[in-house]
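Hi W., the zinc ion complex you wanted:
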Amino acid sequence: MSTKICSRCMAVFDGHKWFYDEGEHTRLMRNRKIELALCPGHQRIEKRRIDGVVTLRGTFLRNHFDEAVNLINNIADRQLHRNVAARVYNMKENGDGLTVETTDTSLAERIGREFEKAFSGNLMIQWLRDAEFVRVNWQRD
Ligand SMILES: [Zn+2]
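Structure:
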């Protein structure tokens, strides 16, 4: 297996595993013969594989909306460096809050735990289908 880079993000495959490395990706891009592929995260996005749904709700959320979106983006960015397959598939604002769909259970769980840590509130994590899918609910009024 040869070195590849993701055509949609800064993930790099070194012949054994995928990892996220902006510097290495930029360096490899200069090589015109480098093979382009989709990293595991983008493969999941392509297949619309959703492994976690996070629902965030409550008055506190509505009053701290930008802060909440920033926190989600920061968590997603950190998790990406641990696991390239863990991505936010979709984030949408709905009537009473924010729904985040993720391609990996670990990211959904982490968003819930980090919200509880940062803002307290009530967290409920529900594992489904032999822990292959997680539903995370966080609320603070
Ligand atoms: Zn990618």
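The chain has two domains: 4-37, 46-139.

W.
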